[in-house]
Design a protein that fits this description.
By secondary structure, the protein is an alpha/beta fold. It is built from seven helices and seven strands, in the order αβααβαβααβββαβ. Helix 6 crosses helix 7. The N and C termini lie far apart (38 Å).
């Protein structure tokens, strides 16, 4: 608890409501996300990597308000640093790829106004939405009072 309070106090120097340094992930990251979040998990959101990349190219950047966030399936919506750390400890990628240091790096990125890759949200033909990548970035942005942005992409398949 004390660590969380110190972390929040450290970050308070950031004017969180004006953070606007979001960037589209580079091609290599997009291909990696497709491999991890689509192929390895056996999803059928897209017919191919090419279709996924086409959807990304045609995607639109949106503000993710709390109202929109609650419509996105598979969101964790952690409210504190400690909740987020407890969540990532359950990930298969913990601790090799996602750990306390990688989470701290995201908090620091917001504090330092660093470039932040846009989370990706898929919208399906029935209007439902699902987080594809960037769940942690969305949680941290909301924890810091930032209205996050995300890349909204379309899938022709149903969830």
């Amino acid at each position: 608890m004390e660590r969380q309070l110190l972390r929040i106090m450290e970050i308070m120097g950031l004017n969180t409501h004006n953070f606007d340094n979001w960037v589209v992930p580079p091609l290599d990251k997009l291909k990696l996300e497709y491999h991890i979040e689509h192929q390895l998990k056996g999803h059928q959101f897209f017919e191919s990597e090419r279709d996924f990349l086409k959807s990304v190219k045609q995607g639109v950047i949106i503000d993710v308000t709390p109202e929109i966030d609650f419509k996105i399936n598979y969101r964790s919506r952690t409210n504190t640093y400690d909740e987020l750390i407890n969540l990532i400890r359950s990930y298969r990628s913990y601790p090799k790829f996602r750990n306390e240091k990688t989470v701290d790096k995201i908090y620091d990125g917001f504090k330092n106004d660093s470039k932040m890759e846009l989370p990706i949200i898929i919208e399906f033909p029935d209007g439902s939405m699902r987080i594809f990548s960037g769940n942690t970035r969305l949680d941290i942005a909301f924890q810091l009072g930032i209205t996050p942005k995300a890349l909204l992409i379309q899938s022709n398949n149903f969830l």
